[in-house]
Amino acid sequence: MNIAIVASSLSPKSNSRILAQKLAEKLSLVSIDVDFIDLRDFKLPLCGDEDDHYHPLISDLTDRIAGAAGIVIASPIYNYGINAAMKNLVELTGKKAWHDKVVGFICAAGGRSSYMSVMSFANSLMLDFHCLIIPKFIYIAKDFDDINHIPDDLKERLDQLAVTLVELAEHYPVETR
Questions:
Q1: Count of CB atoms within 10 A of residue 140's CB?
Q2: What was the pLDDT predicted at 176?
Q3: For residue range 120-158, what is the model confidence (pLDDT) as tens digits?
Q4: 125: number of CA atoms within 13 Å, CB side?
Q5: Which of 16, 35, 42, 156 is 20 to 30 A off residue 25, Cα-Cα?
Q6: What average pLDDT does range 67-83 have in this prediction?
Q7: How far apart are the C-alpha atoms of 139 and 146, rounded to whole Å?
Q8: What DSSP letter does each residue of 101-142 carry, written as one string?
Q9: In sequence order, which ranges of the chain are alpha helices (DSSP H)?
Q10: Phi, psi (rounded to 5 degrees) for 165
Q11: How many CB atoms lie within 10 A of CB 172?
Q12: CB contact at 8 A, 8 and 44
């Protein structure tokens, strides 16, 4: 099974990326193939630019996401929403990449008040692409200082996300007869 993890933060000191890397390590330990997509590594055009969908990186990223049984989006929360880089990726790759995917979230924010901010983005994935959204997403607000000091309860939440993602991705979408 292949799982794509998209780290959408463009910041070099991203808490969401740190947790995404920890999740990738956990999945790899149980023989899950992980495609770690770090958006810092791609200079993507903005959706709406002339010929944006014909950019050579878009085809590659579309195929990588489409080839995954499940996807985890690791994103910072800015202004009560998923960051623009993640929204741009979804707009550029579209239905071919995202249709019928199991999707989980790891979000990092500066405070606790925007914990529901992923919902508009999740609703869009559900309605536009028929994604199955894992309802127990990880939302952190300064929960750890560095990669070596992640609290046990946060490690447990990462474990739960990994198990749920794999179990759902094995069975979704349900084949109709």
A1: 21
A2: 47
A3: 999 999 999 999 999 999 999 876 666 667 889 999 999
A4: 27
A5: 42
A6: 95
A7: 16
A8: -EEEEEEE-SSSTTTTTTHHHHHHHHHHH--EE-SS-EEESS
A9: 15-29, 56-66, 84-98, 119-129, 152-171
A10: -60, -50
A11: 15
A12: no
Q: Give the other-Cβ count within 10 Å of 79's Cβ.
A: 8
Spans of all domains in the chain: 2-171
What's the whole-number mean pLDDT along residues 54-67? 92
- Cα dihedral value 127, 85, 92, 72, nearest 10: -50
The residue assigned the tokens 């960051």 is 83
Q: Is 31 left (phi over 0), alpha (psi -120 to 50) or beta?
A: left
Predicted local confidence at residue 119, as pLDDT: 95
| Residues 31 and 3: beta-carbon distance below 8 Å | no
Asked if residues 117 and 80 have their Cβ atoms less than 8 Å apart, the reply is yes
The Cα 15–Cα 22 span in angstroms is 11
First to last CA, the chain: 23
Given this structure, which CATH class describes domain 2-171? alpha beta
Residue corresponding to tokens 């925007």: 114
68-87 average pLDDT score: 95
| Number of neighbours of residue 46 by Cβ within 10 angstroms | 10
For the entire predicted model, the pTM comes to 0.93
